[in-house]
Design a protein that fits this description.
single chain; 128 residues
């Protein structure tokens, strides 16, 4: 093959885009929104099992859970904004620090922190 061959090699993206997605920004926004929506759902559904199985949840812990779930839903709708990704990271940190109120909140914080870190990695790879 010569250097002027128009056929792309196996490492060359066909359209200049690394991911091959038609709209990579939209795909990444959808991933971030899905992670936050799932997190909000899990947080709200976790209140009762934590109360029954894990001991007493204080009013502050319940307030934190509901507040973080509401924030997650709001951020899920705002993922098109660049600052929403940073605020989503702060949400994960706040949930992890919720472990000072109840240990199960720290566990949820670590789990969703890892999921969020993966979403940030995918975002970086796709939009690079």
């Amino acid at each position: 093959m010569s250097g002027s061959d128009p056929v792309a090699g196996p490492d060359t993206p066909p359209t200049g885009r690394r991911s091959g997605l038609r709209n990579p920004e939209r795909a990444v926004r959808g991933l971030g929104s899905a992670v936050l929506a799932l997190e909000a759902l899990v947080l709200l559904l976790a209140i009762q099992p934590i109360r029954v199985l894990g001991g007493q949840l204080s009013d502050a812990a319940i307030g934190l859970i509901v507040g973080l779930a509401v924030l997650a839903v709001l951020l899920a709708g705002l993922m098109g904004r660049r600052w929403a990704w940073h605020l989503g990271t702060l949400l994960q940190v706040a949930l992890a620090f919720g472990g000072f109120l109840h240990l199960s909140l720290a566990a949820l914080g670590v789990i969703f922190g890892l999921v969020w870190a993966y979403a940030l990695h995918v975002r970086r790879v796709i939009l690079a």
